[in-house]
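Hi team,

As requested, here is the filled-out complex form for the S-adenosyl-L-homocysteine run. I kept the field names the same as last time so the parser does not choke. Let me know if anything looks off before we queue the next batch.

— J.
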Amino acid sequence: MAIDRYMGLCLGHPQYGYYVTRDPLGEKGDFLTAPEISQVFGELIGVWAAAVWRTMGEPDPVCLVELGPGRGTLMADMLRTFKRAAPGLAAAARVHLVETSPVLRERQRQLLGPAPQWHARLEDVPDGPMILIANEFFDAIPIRQIERRDGRWHERVLGLAMGQLAIGLGAPVAATGGEDGDIREPAPARSGIARAIGARLARHGGAALLIDYGHFESQPGDTLQAMRGHRFVPVTEAPGECDLTSHVDFETLGKALADGGAAGCQTLSQRQFLIAMGVEARVAQLAAGVDAPTRDVLARQQARLAEPSQMGNLFKVLAATSPGLERPYPFP
Ligand code: SAH
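And here is what came back:
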């Protein structure tokens, strides 16, 4: 089977899929995400969303949409920030969570209460002005892989080789350019969702903030990866038991948003975004009232999110707006 089918089954099979059968987040799980590392991450995104809402003319109601909300932590941190810093938005926001995992929907309900509406797909979210957030969502949407050998491009496929799962080359596909050995990762499912976001922004107004690990510009390379218990494992290991993701190509994502009708697509590193949004001041404020060991924890969390050698450079933050909306700070 092609890689996108494998990835889709591993993550989303209705009985055995990785996200269907567990909550993968946390120290005891397989991976940690930025909102699980520090409350400051969601708070700063909340500040960003409040500023965007003001440039939108403070629509009431406004759809606050999150794709793949995990445990609901980012949303909870944003909503708490609205209550303190933008009470008008706290009252106007209608929370819509796009989530396929029944286990994670339950976690979200525990944290956020019954007020949000849950949907399986973005298409099911009602029309209206929207602020959309997605953190580590697109990396989990299946990709294809194609590889060039002897001057021709082939689909990469998963199959059995002497009783073991292995990746090999399948049927030739139409593609041009590149060099032998190159691997490309076409992601029509990701582009489809990005186009749908762009179309909603164009129709009803608003902005989207998409955060993930990946690269600013399209480049060849095999970035499919599996994680289990905070370690990388082979992508063929224990299907459905490991987190299977790939890096996000922000150039292609931005083009798909623009194709859908969005304007102003700009991408920063997570480091650039967090520093411009005031991560240092917010951490200093939290550190003022606590003991030395807790201050150390706060400093380590900040470093993990923003330092170039940790998440700061690998992660990117893309903003897109509806045509005519002022480009939201801190995007250039
Ligand atoms: N945003 C959260 C969780 C990231 S993990 C955080 O930062 O902590 C990926 C999330 O996307 C999970 O909530 C998972 O269940 C959800 N997800 C994966 N594939 C999905 C799909 N096709 N549709 C909707 N949600 C999906």
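Two things worth flagging: The first helix runs from residue 3 to 12. The pocket of S-adenosyl-L-homocysteine is lined by residues 11, 19, 25, 33, 35-36, 68-70, 74, 98-101, 104, 135-137, 140-141 (CB under 6 Å).

Thanks,
J.
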